[in-house]
Write a structure and sequence with these properties.
Elements: H1 3-6, H2 28-37, H3 40-43, H4 63-88, H5 92-95, H6 102-112, H7 121-133, H8 146-153, H9 157-166, H10 181-185, H11 215-225, E1 229-230, E2 233-237, H12 242-264, H13 270-277, H14 287-291, H15 296-321, H16 323-328, H17 341-358, H18 362-387, H19 393-400, H20 413-425, H21 429-439
Antiparallel strand pairs: 1-2
Helix pairs in contact: 2-6, 4-6, 4-12, 4-15, 6-12, 7-18, 12-15, 12-17, 13-15, 18-19, 18-20, 18-21
Domain HD/PDEase: 59-264
GO molecular function, one term: dGTPase activity
Pfam families: HD, HD_assoc
Length: 448
Amino acid sequence: MNWKQLLSAKRWGYESRAINEQFDARSEFQRDYDRLIFSSPFRRLQNKTQVFPLPGAVFVHNRLTHSLEVASVGRSLGRLFYNLMKEQHPNIDAEVPFLQEVGNIISAACLSHDLGNPAFGHSGEAAISTFFTEGKGQKYQEMVTKEQWEDLSHFEGNANALRILTHAFNGKDPKGFALTYTSLAAIVKYPCAAIDGHVKSSHHRKKYGFFDTEIGTFEKIATELGLERDPANPKGYLRHPLVYLVEAADDICYNIIDLEDAHHLKILSYKEVEELLLPLCAGEDLRERLDALEDTASRVALLRAKAINTLIWACAKVFAENQDKFLSGTFEKPLMDALSPEIVDQLRVISKISVARIYNAPTVVQIEIAGFKVMNALLEEFVPAYLKANKSMFDRKLVAMIPEQFHTDKEDTYSKIRAVLDFVSGMTDVYAVELYRKIQGISIASLE
């Protein structure tokens, strides 16, 4: 793989249009970022759970604020990488004109990296998968292909993001979001189909990156950008190198910022957060600055900023120094796992504390359980209703609640189930709960 081909401003759905390299205000990749910012799926992230329940009396991050922060970190990672490359190759702009746009490409990809995640965080993904593996959806296994069943029984938010960005939904632009090929490729962490994924020993196949419906879509993107086939999986591909920077931006944010939220919610004391973050604040003695701040939230904010800065510089340096491995697809671990032993060890300590104290905090577990029940109940109502040939009056009313954009004119079982999943996975936490309550007769609009 080579950077000149990997960085393409060709747009999905507008392949025949000439690329304008003379920009008045925005580059093609900045246009990607702006299209995402102003989109409805992105706005809906404000009511999707990141870790802690929302809304609450104390502000915590939701999917939208998380995505914005990841985009900010991603832009810095890309810009630092470009600067390092520029130092090593002074003529790089002439050789690879779009390399200077890497920061904008990564920030756009970071904005969309969680676009396909359903309500209630990972619990929502688990609820959709479990509906098919253990719930009433098991009966549909015989009605779809083996490849399609792997999609349904292992719902994947990353694959759903690619679908949202490229699928021609009813009444919407048939070209999807019309993002650049490179921005689209940069979000696909595991460039293989579901049936070839879930291989823990392969960094390219730990999960999967596109549904059965988007196989042709990704193959078109991969061919244009020159992505190489995975030697261990000829039907899949090796990652686009920029995926590593998008992944690192996400890893940096949730490792550090979840601690800040935990402090705000009094799950972790200031002293505990300081002990976790101070070892990551390299290159500066912060003791005097920290002691001068009486507000513990301000101290945590300072520690958070310095820790993120350390990780950004370290990741950008590793990425620049290992170009051959990234371009050949032989870098077999996340950037965060390739940092100095001291940083990696401290991140493991943070991860251990986060799992024990944050991700298993009572409020987090409660929302996961509630979300699981809500999502499962919605699927139990909408999937059978949409699939039935002879619909009852109740079935017809349920189907009428599905917005026209999600309907399909295809008659096969998989396409119809996928249409319902498009609807349900796009719901916010608040809307999913409200719809669940109304369908179950717990609340009635006119009586509230």
